């Protein structure tokens, strides 16, 4: 009887695993197979296996649709944007976690409140500010800086890093200062190595957030040469000259960098999530 129950339970688990695999992996598998299928498929159709495997759609995407240009734009924005975002967020988190100053609670509340505002609410004010920066009177429209500068500070990254830094014993910093370490040396040599899992977590989330940006590049630039992949994908959907297989191939190309970033930082990313789950 117990053996039958054990076998039934195991079969039930495998059934659940199979259903989960189909639900989550099935659409991606169909996307890949359709992208590598030579003959054009009907709109809305995904294949389980290509009838005639070919790379023609990817070749068309790079040569005719010039996807390489938009891919390069996205890479430039996400590379500098993620680097600056992690650096600025780490510095802000260190100040909130370790420094005592008047209005610290209000500053934290103001930073967290930005997470409650939809992008559509700040689109017009952001466009006006980028069109004429206060004090400098410089326009960042139609430039990479205009797509990078608004993404430098992200409340989510600051919040996560602040909580991790608060868990670090203050005695470590005091010992480093006794040995003659400066404030920046304490930050870069003591704090950052100890919050490496959190840095990986905010890097992955920040990369995906910046890579998937659609509204910001749309309002910053009206020059096609500066379009990023999400903007181009939205325009190709209404382009009748682009075959469905080509559109799916470009969509697959747009997904690969985020997947590669996660796989590259998977171990540190998982450690950061687990440490945040059991911390406190």
- Largest sheet descriptor: none
Order of helices and strands: HHHHHHHHHHHHHH
* β-strand number: 0
Overall structural domain count: 2
Give the helix level as a range of percent: over 70%
Which CATH class of the largest domain? Answer: Mainly Alpha
Question: Quick one: overall form?
Answer: flat
Provide an overview of this structure.
The chain has about 280 residues and is mostly helical. It is built from 14 helices and no strands. Helix 3 packs across helix 10 (about 195-210), helix 4 crosses helix 7 (about 155-165) and helix 7 runs antiparallel to helix 10. The chain has two domains: about 1-55, no CATH class; about 65-280, MetI-like (MetI-like fold). It is about 70% helix and about 0% strand. The protein has helices at about 1-35, 55-65, 65-100, 105-115, 120-130, 145-150, 155-165, 170-180, 185-195, 195-210, 215-220, 230-235, 245-265, 265-280. It is flat. The longest helix is centred in the N-terminal third of the chain and has 34 residues, at about 1-35.
Overview features:
280 residues, mainly alpha, MetI-like fold, 2 domains, 14 helices, flat
Summarize the structure.
The chain has helices at residues 2-35, 56-63, 67-98, 104-113, 119-131, 144-148, 155-166, 170-178, 183-194, 196-211, 215-220, 229-236, 244-264, 266-278. The protein is mostly helical and 280 residues long. The longest helix is centred in the first third of the chain and has 34 residues, at 2-35.
């Amino acid at each position: 009887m117990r053996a039958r129950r054990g076998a039934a339970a195991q079969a039930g688990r495998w059934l659940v695993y199979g259903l989960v695999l189909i639900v989550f992996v099935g659409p991606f598998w169909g996307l890949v197979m359709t992208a590598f299928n030579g003959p054009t498929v009907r709109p809305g159709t995904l294949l389980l296996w290509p009838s005639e495997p070919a790379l023609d759609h990817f070749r068309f995407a790079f040569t005719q649709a010039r996807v390489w240009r938009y891919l390069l734009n996205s890479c430039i924005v996400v590379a500098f944007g993620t680097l600056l975002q992690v650096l600025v967020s780490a510095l802000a988190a260190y100040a909130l976690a370790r420094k005592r100053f008047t209005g610290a609670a209000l500053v934290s509340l103001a930073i967290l409140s930005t997470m409650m505002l939809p992008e559509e609410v700040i689109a017009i004010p952001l466009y006006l500010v980028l069109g004429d920066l206060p004090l400098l009177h410089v326009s960042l429209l139609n430039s990479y800086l205009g797509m990078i500068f608004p993404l430098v500070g992200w409340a989510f990254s600051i919040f996560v890093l602040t909580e991790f830094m608060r868990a670090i014993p203050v005695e470590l910093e005091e010992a480093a200062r006794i040995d003659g370490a400066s404030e920046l040396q304490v930050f870069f040599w003591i704090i950052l190595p100890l919050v490496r899992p959190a840095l990986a977590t905010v890097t992955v989330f920040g990369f995906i957030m910046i890579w998937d940006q659609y509204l910001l590049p749309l309002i910053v630039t009206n020059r096609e040469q500066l379009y990023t992949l999400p903007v181009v994908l939205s325009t190709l959907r209404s382009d009748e000259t682009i075959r469905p297989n080509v559109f799916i191939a470009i969509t697959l190309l747009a997904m690969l960098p985020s997947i590669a970033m996660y796989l590259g930082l998977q171990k540190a990313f998982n450690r950061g999530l687990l440490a945040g789950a059991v911390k406190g």
